[in-house]
Amino acid sequence: MTQSDRFHAVAASYLGWTLDAFDFFVVVFLVDILAAQFGVSKARIVATIGFTLATRPIGAVVFGVLADRYGRRIPLIANVIFFSVIGLLCGFSVNYVMFVVLRTLYGIGMGGEWGVGASLAMENAPPRWRGVLSGIVQSGYSTGYLIAAVASRFVLPHLGWRWMFWIGGLPALLALYIRTKVPESEAWQEHKLPSVGAILKSTLHYWKRFLFLMLLMTFMMFLSHGTQDLYPDFLKSEHHIASITVSNVAIFYNVGAILGAILFGQLSEVIGRRKAMVCALALSMVVIPFWAFGGTIMVLALGAFVMQMGVQGAWGIIPAHLVELAPDSARGLVPGFAYQLGILFAAPTNSIEYALRDVFGYRWAIASFEIMTIVMLTIIISLGGEQKGKQFVTVKPD
User: Fold this and answer.
1) What is the Cα–Cα distance from 329 to 247, expressed in whole angstroms?
2) CATH of segment(s) 3-164+195-383
């Protein structure tokens, strides 16, 4: 496989996750507007985020099994077209029920992209570059969030909320890029099994490892969604910061997220996956007072910048870590399914934080939730294993 082939595989995974995340995060900037548009409470709009998260495991299973049975490319193309069309249709919603149905369906597409894209990218990445490329792939999530923030700053005021979803139909063009430029995975070709039943049987053989990965991903979701999804609303509601300024802050802290994913991804090649993740979590822990209790917009913005460096620093290692721990014959299914089951169990995160806000106040709600999450994650990561540098393809002698 040529360097060009490797580049296209990683680029396709990164772009797919970026565009997928953009469609997801559009909603967090529209909570007030959508509530007014559909005549419902803000809590019911926040709940749609949970519906999207809850259906992601369905996509992980469907597209993951297809990826292990028929290769990475075709399922990834189908997935990109699916989530692009559903995202586009969200802009045509005429009432709350229609919006809920579409956002729930969108979760299926979002759930399928990560596992297939991550396996394709990591199987094509040279082992010595796997850490930093893992960070780049995962930073697509923050890039999508950043683009959503930019759109809320420049598209929303001039064209309205529907255009925030309509431009989400553009990712369908990525399918053409994958079709013409991205090669099939050599690792899949070497380890593919003859039937869906064989794939599922292989997965069940590793059930203990799968349960560990699912637990890990549940708390990783508590970490990311607990620090990101409601933060724009937190800045507006608690600190009465204007929407335009909130968008600028979101752009700023997502730059930190992208830097953190790449830096800690590379660090994981030096000190190992688990130690690098714990270091990233420690960074997030120490900045919580500034992120949640800062008294000025400058302190809050800087706190959010460093917070997301740590959060996405830990996340930047996840694609490589999960793909390395997955069985060879089910590398399309296991990482994505564990990832999305974590989403399923963590789906109430936003609703929990929103409910805690009414009891303890917004600041203590998000701070206490993340302190407990970081402590538990540190324990889980420390007790787990890793297979840094695992070879996915048999090395042929010269």
Assistant:
1) 43
2) 1.20.1250.20
